[in-house]
Amino acid sequence: MMPNLQPLMPEEEIKPAKIDYNMATDGAFDINPRQGTLAPLQDHAFTLSYCPQELKDYHSVCHLVLRDIPDPPQETSGDGADRPAQRRAAVNDVIVMEIEVKGSTEHYKVLLEPYALHFPGESVTGTTIKRRFKMWNNSRTHVVFHWERLSDHHIMEVEPPTGVIEMNECCDLELALTGGEPGSHSLRLDCRIEHHDEPVTLVVQAAFKGPRVCINIPSLDLGLLRLGDHAKSTVHITNTSHLAASWALQEVPDRRQELSREVSQISVEPCRGLLPPLGGCNVDVVFRPSVCQRFHTILELAVDRGCGCHLSVQANVQLPQVCLLSCELVFSELYVGVPARGTVRLFNQTLLPASFCWGELQGPQASLCSATFSPSAGTLGPSAEAEISVEFTANTDRELTEVIALCSVKDMKDPLVLVFFSKAQPLRVSYVLSDRYVVNDQPENVGCIIQIQFDCVSGLL
């Protein structure tokens, strides 16, 4: 029953009619046996149990009720005559004893020894490691415990998972941990205590290593390529662990996002697979350039639940690029019909060999002259320079400014242009007559010298 507490003034009597009898609903106190028969002149033992359900103070009153107790008989009337109605005794339940009970509560005191477990070194993923520990019950009563089981990325469980620990006793437990992901991890495993809100937490620190796959070279240089060609190289990957390794080799994510709108220039075959323990395989890396560039990318070797590595790939893609060190050839001293010599220089601006070939003269005035080149064709080495000898012949004394020669270079879009500038002079021939002449095979003297000069134009006197 709930306590009957009434505020009373000094010397004020308790009024039983105003006492409220309310049943206690918290259920913290219990008396056993609850009911029975009291034998005459005998002692009877009762057991009071206290089992709080919440963290608070409890206060209650236990009543000992005797059932079917007759009321005391009433006195007879003054005339000495008994009245039958008054002789009939009334029967009621009577509270003969009240016991006030109080109880307080406190938190369960459950401790782990040690409170944290540390596994030194690195353990292999997929293997189970174990460690023993103790759980102490320093509470005023027994505790019922239940350990949770962790199975998200790692598997962690305690044996036995459930049990009862008596007051001031301990329980020997064993933690079993199976690593699922490589790296250093700090894990927490909760133990639920019955009638206790806060769990007891065990902290576990462990490091795991998964399968490790490596590439035989740290970087791959595909060298110099001509646009339109492709390069292929083979690398070897090796599983250095005693676990099977699922791997994939592809460009790093940032690089793939840049190339999401265009076709990747790098392909890997095979790009994924499964390596047995201590196994290996060859992988072909193929590069198909789409533009001239200094190409560089990173290939990532990803290992499922393991450790991979990266491979740097680079290449230099070019097309032949040749230039003339001087695009004009000027002949300042030139005579009609007489060949004149000059030189021009070709320079290869790339690291690729370049094939060149000189063509015929072109332009409105190309028919008024001719030219030959030596050599007329050939190949320039990487960053090489070549001297070309040009023999130019003008067939007119007109000024030539619209004559060009084209030099074609393989894989170059536009040819090289060499412009000729010249103005030929007519040929002048002088004849000198000696001061003697011959008559009948005998020289004879004369009194003067006669000089005759002729101009030759277009090769004709």
Summarize this entry quickly.
Helix content is 2%, strand content 54%.
Structural summary, described in words:
- The chain is an all-beta fold.
- The chain contains 2 helices and 35 strands.
- The chain is rod-shaped, with a radius of gyration of 58 Å.
- The C terminus is likely disordered.
Summarize model confidence as the mean pLDDT: 84
Count of helices? Answer: 2
Helix content: under 10%
Category by helix and strand content: mainly beta
The proportion of strand residues reads over 45%
How many whole angstroms does the radius of gyration measure? Answer: 58 Å
Distance between the termini: 154 Å
Poorly predicted regions are 446-450, 456-461
Sum up the overall morphology in one term.
rod-shaped
- Tell me the number of strands: 35
Order of adjacent strands in the largest pleated sheet: 6-13-12-8-10
Mind describing the biggest β-sheet? 5 strands, mixed
